[in-house]
Amino acid sequence: MNNLHSRTVKIGQLDIHYLTGGAGEPLIIIHGGGVGANAWLENAIELSKRHRVYVPDLPGFGRSQSMGDNFSVPEFSEFVEQFSLAMGLERFHLLGHSIGGCIALDYAFKYSHRVKKLVLISSFCLGKELALWVRFLCSKAIRKSVGELVLTVLRLVRWLARSVFTPSEQAGFISRFKMNIGKSFTTLKGQAIVLQSRLSELVVPTLVVWGAKDNIVPVRQAYAALQAIPDGHLHVFEGLGHSPFRQNVVEFSEIMSRFLS
Predict the structure, then answer these.
(1) Residue range 211-228, pLDDT digits in tens
(2) Which tens digit of pLDDT belongs to each residue from 16-63?
(3) Is the pTM of this model over 0.90?
(4) Per CATH, which fold does 4-130+193-260 belong to?
(5) Alpha carbon distance 207, 127 (integer Å)
(6) Which residue from 104, 86, 3, 10 is spatially nearest to 44, judged by alpha carbons?
(7) Where are the domains of the chain?
(8) How many other C-beta atoms lie within 10 A of the C-beta of residue 261?
């Protein structure tokens, strides 16, 4: 049964949409750079059987208002803090995927007393290496020189796709907003923010989850992170890619339940 509900809350001047439901210890999920909270819908339903789940649309994603044109990891981690306070949470589990993993990691460094356990899934900021196509698409030079042409083509593709895809799937198409946020995390040389050297500072139990076939962030960054995190745990899904939580919902939920219990 679907225990989730769609809600809206005011965070500062922004109207923020989020999904919530279930009972038990609170768990905040920070999505990656795709469709927003809806990417976690099926997983959140499963996880809500054992936890009180909160999945906000980050500002500018899904149905949440945007902060503007400039983005930074500190801004987003501060958003997590304000969101958790608005939900009335004192301590909670925190999970982040992809760029959401970087945000969750930054939050755990700053607010370790608020985080019970941390889960990083295919996380950015654990190493420099990143898929070439991501670096290319988000680079400043590319956005300036061919950005408008690329966006025009993508708008045409999205228009054609409306007769095929659902609204939530359409939201995954690249937009100028997503290209702008990408510049905060990437350069042509690789990831712009690397927190690997600080992993030894983590004081909360941390689970690193990866897909062995991740073609965006290489799985070797997960193994390197495991060696650096004091209370670190690792699960690698063989044969899966950058979003293993969506590719194997049942096993992922079982792994989360064991770690978070």
Answers:
(1) 999 998 999 999 999 999
(2) 999 999 999 999 999 998 889 999 999 999 999 999 999 999 998 999
(3) no
(4) Rossmann fold (3.40.50)
(5) 17
(6) 3
(7) 4-130+193-260
(8) 10
